[in-house]
Amino acid sequence: MLRVAVVGATGLVGSQMMAILEERSFPVAELVPVASERSAGKRVSFRGEEVEVRVVSEEVFEGVDLALFSAGSSVSRRWAPVAVSRGAVVVDNSSAWRMDPKVPLVVPEINGDDLSWHSGIIANPNCATVQTLMALYPLHRRFGLVRFFASTYQSVSGTGARALEELRIGALSYLDGRSWSGGVYPHPIAFNLIPEIGPFRDDGYSEEELKMVNESRKIMGLPDLQVDCTTVRVPVFRGHSVSVFAFFQREVDVEEARGVLSSFPGVKVVDDPSSHLYPMPMDAAGRDEVFVGRIRRSLADPRGLALWVVSDNVRKGAALNAVQISEKLLEMGLLRRA
């Protein structure tokens, strides 16, 4: 049994991490919920008990075997090395360590073996990257991925709890004929699309778009993979969607591609457009699978395939993937159990 800390325990992803640890009967002997000083005194529920939240400090990691971080990059950069120095293995959900060459960036179904060379910190990929690669990796194994173009439609839950409230109040205000902006986004999100996620670089690409490019190359072990991406925030509470055009080394058979995707763990094909069956974020919310539909061969290139990929970004895109990494560490004997 393990002593497990969850840093960012009062946040959207942190609370989901604790719920998934409970759902999947992860061997937790003691849960240590950790947050900032403003959460001091709060209590969280775990396995039917109320557990007091502790303020992040060096001492809080004493005796911790596993620390799941979801409190932002600055917190991870400051405290993840401290947790490791106290003997913990860290699985970090922020972008702080993802592109560090000494840190594995892992989707367990794809590159779980990379955990064998961790030095204390393992990075959890960006949510949109996770679901996109869950669809592309099995196709890559069969057809040989050369490049892909992605347009993401990302829900407000990717920004956190305040964004959920901003969409709710903004929608009610709009329908009531009142203007309202909560300040989380640079423009109103209700009934709107915002093609801006993260700061822009001088070349016009945003930080979120570059995550798709760089993380895909690292996870897939394809440093020359050609990737282009446009990321868009949409007025959906939960569940990211990605439109993908992927191109391969050889001609793609659509039925073969459906079979490849259907047999890959964690992927569910929902693809019967004539019956109006295709993945939608409303159906994916609260589910662990990555849903793939609208599978069709490119009209421009017989080696190309178009996909529509939907997933609950808080679960598989963040909390579930972190817990799956932890399970894989146990399976590989890389996480000590008292």
Can you tag this structure with a few keywords?
338 residues; Rossmann fold; six-stranded parallel beta sheet; globular
Overview of this protein structure:
By secondary structure, this protein is an alpha/beta fold. The chain folds into two domains: 2-125 and 318-331, NAD(P)-binding Rossmann-like Domain (Rossmann fold, 3-Layer(aba) Sandwich), CATH 3.40.50; 128-312, Dihydrodipicolinate Reductase, domain 2, CATH 3.30.360. Helices cover 31% and strands 24% of the residues. The protein contains nine helices and 14 strands. It has helices at 12-23, 73-85, 108-111, 127-143, 161-175, 207-220, 254-262, 281-284, 315-331; strands at residues 2-7, 28-35, 43-46, 49-52, 54-55, 66-69, 89-92, 121-123, 145-154, 226-233, 240-248, 267-269, 290-297, 304-311. A six-stranded parallel sheet has the order 5-2-1-6-7-8, with helices on both faces. Helix 2 links the parallel strand 6 and strand 7 (89-92). Helix 1 packs across helix 9 (315-331). It is globular, with a radius of gyration of 20 Å. It starts with a strand and ends in a 7-residue tail after the last helix. The model has no long low-confidence stretch (mean pLDDT 96).
